[in-house]
Every structure is written in C-alpha cells, then in structure tokens.
C-alpha cells in the first residue's frame, strides 16, 4: 500500500503500555508500603507463609500456555489471546482490539496524532507497527526470508503476502489485457500503466510517477538520502537492494547460479551477461 503524498515531509506510524505500567506501579507501591512497616519477629511457619504469599503475588501463570506475569492486569490482557475476546472497542468506527494499548494506537488514526517519530530522519507515524517497519528501513534489516526465491522482508506479514506470488492462484484479472495477479494491489498498479495515470508528484522537480515506490526512490536523488549502511565497511546506499548486492563483496556470497554450467555469480546482471555470451558447459 502506498504512503499518502510522499513528496511532502511527513510526520506519520512502541505505544507505551500506560495502563499496564500504572498497575505495575500500584503493585510496587503496595509492596513498598509493606517493606516500610516494622518487621515483627515471626516464627518459622509464619515466615514461610509470608514468603509464599509474596511468591504467589509475583507469579501469576497462564493456565493455557504457562507464561507468567507479575501483574494480574497483564495476565487478564494476555488471556484475550487464548479466548479471542476483543473487549476494547473504538467508539469512532467500531473496530475492536484485544489490548487497550492497541486501541490507543488505533485512535491516532482518527485524531491525526503521530506520536511515533524516527530519530534518524524525523518522519512520524500514527501507529507503532508502521514506525517499527520504517525503522528497519534505516538498518536495512530484513530477517524474514522466502525459501522459494531468497527474497528478504522486514516484516513477517510482508513475507506472507509475498508467498502468494509463488502460488498458482491469480484471481485478479486485468480487463484490458487479460494479465492476472495474485494480489489486488499488483493489479491496481498494473492498470495505471494502461491508463497512464501518474498521480505521484515529486515536489522538487515536478516529475510524476505511477507508483509511490518509484517516487520515493527518485526523491533520494534530490535529498541525497542514503539510509542503508553496510555493516562491514559503513558505506551507505540509497536502496536496500544495492546494499545487499554490495555486502556480497564482503561475504563472498554468490546466489545466482547458471543451470547450464553450474557457475555462480555475485550479481544477477553478471549471470545475465554470462548467459548472453553463450554459456558453454
């Protein structure tokens, strides 16, 4: 999904768990009050009972998965995962959530508030998950790997969506040329090529683009932004693909294989050139 109006310097989306923290603080205060009271001389059985009570207070265990919590409120919130209950409902749109922190995060969409700000580029986000995804763009980290094609993704959900590409199911059909796509977003993007609609405008030079991705990539020419840093030599790049290609110089990885002669290459372009030059076994 495209970011809205990327040509502007946007301030868009880990919500602090305020309610859970309050409960923890209350419990801490209660424990502090107990500690401040004069300690009476207790017999051995009394001492065992006292410590047993404190241990039970600090060890609330989920009967479904065995996970332990120090605060009853945290345990109650966690139980919603097992029951499927979503008790926190948005009074604006009716959408429901398992955790109150997720509702608070969602409410920023309605209020327009964007509390999650990147300390590297200043961009802001309404939702914490969008913020987390954005932060990975600076590190270049893409821990989720597609076993079928080797492509890496920063989010598990992105990998899940990508896997549809490898399936034979392509239900989204272009009415103009008959080409089909596994995802509706791909079809929508494709149809713009037929219509010639370029609704993504560069605010630096006025050039227009069909997709938001193309616009954002183009704008790095104007800004000089190079957010992707090599972990081996600190060299920086404006595209994650270029970074990954560069790092193979350090790792010696050669993922592109010629199925005719078995020779391997560091870059896809090298493999293509090899094939054009009439590969011989």
From TrEMBL:
GO molecular function, one term: zinc ion binding
Pfam families: zf-C2H2, zf-C2H2_4
Ranges annotated as biased composition (Acidic residues): 26-36
Keyword vocabulary terms for this entry: DNA-binding, Metal-binding, Nucleus, Repeat, Transcription, Transcription regulation, Zinc, Zinc-finger
Domain of life: Eukaryota
Residue spans of biased composition, Basic and acidic residues class: 1-25
Record's subcellular location: Nucleus
GO biological process: negative regulation of transcription by RNA polymerase II; regulation of cell differentiation
Protein name: Gastrula zinc finger protein XlCGF8.2DB-like
Native organism: Carassius auratus
Higher taxonomy: Eukaryota, Metazoa, Chordata, Craniata, Vertebrata
